[in-house]
Amino acid sequence: MSSYTGRFAPSPSGPLHAGSLVAALASYLDARAHHGRWLLRIEDVDTPRTVAGADRFIMQQLSCLGLHWDGEVMWQSQRHAVYQAALEQLQGAGYLYGCACTRREIALANAGGRATRAVTGLDTPGSDDERPYPGTCREGLPGGRSARAWRLRVPAGIERFDDRWAGPQQQDVALAVGDFVLRRADGLWAYQLAVVVDDAAQGVTDIVRGADLLGSTARQRVLARLLGQTPPRVMHVPLVLDRRTGLKLSKQNHAPALDLHDPIAALSDAWQALGFDPIALPGTPALRAGASTAMQTLIRAFLAEATARWAARFVPAR
Ligand SMILES: [Zn+2]
């Protein structure tokens, strides 16, 4: 075992689809190629979007695909006390403040400056990229107002990091995002806080995930350091687009669940979406549909070959 710890962290808002499998496979292969651990974390912190039973279904899908995780599964919905402690740590250090602003007030404040897009969605990854918080409550709540949400006082400066897929990145978080929410007005924990706290708690050294989260990375690194942590290395793999609509395959865009009658076909599609050449395996589709032990052998052979090719491309020789 190396010191590498990776993770796959799906939100249980529906079953895995072809897009989420690409992220799962990439993070699995990177962990195995480093002889590291691969953990599974269920990101069910956004309870209104959680679908009952989807977590167990995702776990079944991963097992069916031969993507076996190490150790115990972590559920974010059970970690309220840990997130509360992190919030209090930040408050004690002066990095937290209460915010009374409504979504509409923030949009209006921003409309005076740069052009803003329509304000949509919740505080989900990426959705607040286009509406930096104008800092209204930074120096204290307006008279007669009380705190709805809790925000991080983002320090000035440019955050730079290397993405193992996308290359050098930089963002002025204070300018591009502003003081972002850690605890939402509806009382839920923000994704950004939960993910940073949990990556540290699980000893994650390497994050491999979809490119839709690249835009969240700089603020997560800022938050990690304010909590006294070393931010993990990151690799953001390309998203799978719907051939018909050109949109990102996602649960929100109604991507169909994976067809697991032919797990090798599902794995092959994800593998080639990562830019690799096909892997030739013995056996016809008829044989593949036969005994499940034969199928498990084929899946193991596929993943072993994929791990070797991944290592050759992404793991520097020592
Ligand atoms: Zn405010």
What's a concise summary of this model?
This protein has helices spanning 18-33, 54-64, 80-92, 103-111, 173-176, 191-201, 214-226, 263-273, 285-288, 292-314, and strands spanning 5-8, 37-42, 74-75, 96-99, 149-152, 158-163, 167-172, 181-183, 206-210, 233-237.
Give a structural overview.
The protein has 318 residues and is α/β, with parallel strands linked by helices. The chain has two domains: 5-77 and 268-314, HUPs (Rossmann fold, 3-Layer(aba) Sandwich); 80-192, Glutamyl-tRNA Synthetase, Domain 3 (Glutamyl-tRNA Synthetase, domain 3), CATH 3.90.800. Helices cover 36% and strands 14% of the residues. The protein has ten helices and ten strands. A three-stranded parallel sheet has the order 1-2-3. Helix 1 packs across helix 8 (263-273), helix 6 packs across helix 7 (214-226) and helix 8 runs parallel beside helix 10 (292-314). The model is unreliable at 114-129 (pLDDT under 50). It binds zinc ion. Zinc ion binds next to loops.
Ligands (ions, cofactors included)? zinc ion
Which residues form runs of ≥5 with pLDDT under 50?
114-129
Tell me the quaternary state.
single chain
Q: Order of SSEs, N→C?
A: EHEHEHEHEEEHEHEHEHHH
Per CATH, the class of the largest domain reads Alpha Beta
- Side by side, the strands of the main sheet go 1-2-3
Overall pLDDT, averaged?
89
Main sheet record: 3 strands, parallel
Task: Give the second-level CATH assignment, the architecture of the largest domain.
Answer: 3-Layer(aba) Sandwich
Helix content: 25-40%
Q: Rg, please?
A: 21 Å
- Class derived from helix and strand content: alpha/beta
Report the span from N to C terminus. Answer: 15 Å
Give the total of beta strands.
Answer: 10
Helix tally equals 10
Overall form:
elongated
